[in-house]
Amino acid sequence: MKKVLLFALVLFMATAASAQFKVGGGLTIGTEAGGIDDDGSEKMGIGLNLRGDYAFNESWSIAPGFTFFFPSAPDGVDITYWQLNADAHYHFAAEGDFGFYALGGLNYSYVKIDWGDNEFWGGSSDDSEIGLNLGAGATMQQFYGELKYDTAFEQLALSVGIMF
Fold first, then answer.
1. Which whole-number Å values give the CA distances from 1 to 11, 97, 108, 114, 130, in the listed order?
2. Which of 23, 28, 94, 98 is 20 to 30 A from 124 via CA?
């Protein structure tokens, strides 16, 4: 898996000079990536995302990205959530500074929970999963907003940010 990601990154960077390439980032709110409450239920959370956008033509682009969430947890418990995304965007409407796109792609999601010295759970566990992203987004000049569902975290994620 690491070799495939490295190859994709090298290929992406090698061809970036020949087409329109933007980088940026923003905030993401995820419905299931906020950590756990004292009662063990999941909650909404916020994260930071970094992304690129490589336009092949007026209709198609790819958008690789990384999102790191900041989950909360009861005292003594540490949670790490992050996600790598590789989305394809189909730009179907553009009017002046506004544009709209549909998106689909893959994500690699990772979660680690360290229970610390808790006498009942103790230790740590981690999990990773490959999932799908489906959604839509909009652009206004250099700003973007998108709503997507990812099957790995089984959540809706709303992202807003800026691209340069």
1. 15, 38, 10, 25, 11
2. 28
What CA dihedral angle connects 155, 127, 2 and 108, to 10 degrees? 0
Cα gap 29→14, rounded to integer Å: 32
Which pLDDT value is given to residue 29? 95
pTM: 0.82
Give me the pLDDT at residue 9, please: 52
Chunked into runs of 10 residues, the chain (164 residues) has average pLDDT values of 54 55 96 77 89 94 96 83 96 90 97 75 83 97 96 95 96
Alpha carbon separation from 55 to 65, 82, 160 (Å, rounded): 15, 25, 19
H or E element: which one contains 50?
strand 45-55
**What single DSSP character describes residue 153?**
T
77, 94 in Cβ contact below 8 A? Answer: no
Alpha helices in the chain (DSSP H): 2-15
Q: Which residues contact 59 (CB under 8 A, 6 or more apart)?
A: 90, 91, 92
How many of the other CB atoms lie within 10 Å of CB of 104? 13
